[in-house]
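#lab-general

N.A. 3:47 PM
ok so I finally got the sequence cleaned up, no stray characters, all 318 residues accounted for. can someone with queue access submit it? mine expired

B.Y. 3:52 PM
send it over

N.A. 3:53 PM
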Amino acid sequence: MQPVRVSEIASFLAGSLEWSGVAMDFDVDGFAPVEEAQSTDIAFWTENSISGNLRHSHAGLLLVRETFEGKPEDVQILLRVKNPYHAMVCFLEKYHAPFVRYQESAIAASAIIHPTAVVEGIVGDQCVIGPYCIIPRGATLGNDCILESRVTLYPQVVLGDRCVAQSGVVIGSRGFGFYDYEGERRPVPHFGGVCVGDDCSFGANMVVAAGFLSPTRIGYSCHFDSFVQIGHNCSLGNFIYMASQSGLAGGVLVEDHVELGGGAQVAGHITLGNHVTIAAKSGVIKSVPPGSTMAGFPAVPIEAWRRQEVALRKMGRL
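B.Y. 4:20 PM
back already:
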């Protein structure tokens, strides 16, 4: 680890510091969303932030707008900048590498690894790593995992025990996120990685994108068909089933026992409650309450969708 002094960060970002505690300068050694940040982390806040409880943040260094008013009680230092989001991106692009601490490669003696695989991360007992798989430094596999062939993991990816990835799976790639700054659309870096629970399976050629500041999360006993897409910063509970070509945009919260039919798509930053079912080819554009079954585009309760279909067919016969 190579911590960075607050004063150096302020100089790099051309911001104005505002102290609120006894510490006038200290080492920043991590980054996190505002609601998760601790006393030596950097975080950011804007008025239109999608999530984050600013009032209870414990961030050591918080990036805010120049016009920001008020003072979060437990934040040590404010750094006032023109655009906090852009400042955070600039910070990550310059300083991300010093914050990454990779454990040394550790491969269990019982693991079976094909000679064409590239394995530099941590591999647990009884794992099977197939041809041309890539496990870089910073990636971790639990026990009894199977990567069939040409599976690519990125750094900061953690798989639990007994996970199976079929051919062509990619976990931890950069999410499809962009932001506008001074008339230019710029890519968002995603260094948060992916965290997967036990007993999950990934179908051929599916992709799970890494989170921005915190991991994309998948619970235990989740199962995904081929060509499924899970966007950056999604948070999935347990016992999730997603059929082929279904997808979640960034920041979707999926609770337990949710099922998506083939080709179903979910817009970003909404919630699917417990025991929700989404019919095939549906398009979900707003949050769905627990226990609902939805169909159509835009998705509506399935009984309403059926009535709509009957009405349309009757109109077609007129």
